[in-house]
Amino acid sequence: MIFAHHVFLSYSRKDTDMMNRVRDELRASGLTVWTDEGLEAGTPSWTRDIDQAIRNTGCLVVLLSPDAYNSEWVGREIAFAQTHNKRIFPMLVRGDTTNAVPFDLARHNFVDIRTNYDTGMQKTIRDIRKHLNIPAPQPKPVYVPPPQPQPVYQPPPQAKPTPIPVYESPKPTPVPVYEPPPIAIPFKQLQVLNPLDWAKLLWWILLDPKQWVQYRQAQGKNEFTDLSDEPVRAWLTSTLTWLPLFWLTFGIAINSLPIIQRDYEWARYAVFIIIMVWIFTGIIIQGDDYSGLAGGVAVIVMGGVLVILALIVTGGVAVVLAVVLAVVVTRSVLGGVKGRYDNRIGSVVEEAIRIESATWATILIFVTLIAVHAFLIWYSLLGGYHVLN
To answer: Is residue 128 classed exposed, middle or buried when 0-12, 13-18 and 19+ CB atoms within 10 A define those classes?
Structure first.
């Protein structure tokens, strides 16, 4: 009997990759295969094409999987093929007999290609050929031309060769190697009042010291661990010093952080005072080592505010510790001048600048600063107080 195609391939759309592999394997063996590729599923023409394809096929190959088991159309194709007495060749590609083999095919011998694909495919191809009475493809004969007699080469008589004088070239003169001058990397001058440049300076010092060294060299400065002559350092230090207290007082001022006395008016003035002291510290600290006038003002004002916050804010001990940690890390990282880091954290930063590479310690310092400020924002402005109390 002549069929329009040898094999109708039934599968779930979720097994398309395996379908492509099985389809190509069947076609490579000389069998013609029909699939619904290129047809829009669910349309009347799609249903009509499937009907005609099953009627005119020699057999049905079903790819069994949990998705095929639950597919309405795979079930319809199996039932329609059985109605027209089409031989069905099940192939188990995913799942197992409990969730992939339908009731209608329980008595069929299926081929398991989950673990031994090549053996299962070869068996299926042999069974299809036997069912359709298709002889196995014969290998094409290889044409071997008959051997041709090779003529024996007889070289002509040679006269005695005339010796050729050996030419000795003069020794080459070495060509000087041109070495281009080093290209200076352009760096834009850090702007004193640009917060993005403040963040850039902190990033360079802790996470990318090589950029900091190149920036200093571009500025014509050979002292890399000396920050005293960098104006941006003053504003970065002042900002990181007062920002923790600003989060707390601002949270109280907007009634986001409850206090014992429930008098929030003073907090509004405190926010203004902190902003003024922040500006004052940023101006005074330039050229200072953070231990002179600016350091004294910072310690006195911050100590007073911390005592007040510890007394009036419920759960204030954790908050005060967070503020102190932020300030100590800030002073340790940015407080040293002219290479004189007098603390362990500062010496770690100095070492990273010296080797022009971030270390695990400087990365930990950066993460600590970010974590402390994130905690204070969450506690003061985003409802963290209510979670901890």
So the answer is: buried
